[in-house]
Amino acid sequence: MTRHTFRFSTQRALRLSVAALLVWAIAWAAPASAQNTSPHFDLLIRGGHVVDGTGNPWYRADVGVRDGRIVAVGLLDGATAERVVDATGRIVAPGFIDIHSHADDNVGPRRPTIRADVLQRKAAPNLVSQGITTVVVNQDGRSPWPIAEQRATLERQGVGPNVMLMIGHGEVRRQVMGDDFRRPATADEVARMRALVRQGMEEGAAGLSAGLEYVPG
Prior knowledge:
Blueprint: H1 2-29, H2 32-35, E1 40-50, E2 59-66, E3 69-74, E4 80-86, E5 91-92, E6 96-98, H3 119-122, H4 125-128, E7 132-137, H5 147-157, E8 162-168, H6 169-177, H7 187-202, E9 207-209
Parallel strand pairs: 1-4, 1-5, 6-7, 7-8, 8-9
Antiparallel strand pairs: 1-2, 2-3
Helix pairs in contact: 6-7
C-alpha cells in the first residue's frame, strides 16, 4: 500500500510539473500582444513578410521600433505607434551591407561622393532605396589619408547610410615609398607602413583593403 501510494503521488507530481512547465512555456511564447495588450512604439511596421537573415523562410509579423531599436517582432495586435507603416505583401528585412562600395571614391568635383556637402549625394537615395544601409568604402587599396579627416567630414556633414572605412594598402605604400613602390620595401619602410596602418585603425578604420590588379595594390 505504501509503495502504491508513493507511486501515485510521484505520477501526480510529474503531471503537475509538466502542466506547470507548459503554462510557463505558453506564457513566454505568447505574442507580445498577449503579455501587454497595448504596447506603444515610435514606429510600427504591420503585416510584412519578415526575412530575418537566419536562413529561415519568411513569416508574417509586425515589427515595433522604439528609440531607434527593434524591440518587438510578432503579432502585435492592439499596439499603437507614433507612425504606422502598412507593409502588407512587402518584405521586411535587416538592412543590406555593401561590402565593396565605391560610394566615397575620390572621383573629382563633377561626381561628388557621399562625403560632399550635397544632400542628393550624401543622403545616398540610390543605395538606401535598394535596402542598403551600410557601405564599406575605400576599396581596392585606395583611400584618402589620413583616415581621421575622412571620418570627421562624414560625421560633420552627415550621411544617409552607415559607413565603414578601410585603409588602402596602396595608399599606405605610397605614403612611405612615394612613386618608388615597385621594388621590395626595406625593413624600415615596412615598419613605417605598419605604423600607418595602426594609426588608421586607431582613427576609426575597420580593416585594410587591397587591389592586386591596381598599382601599387
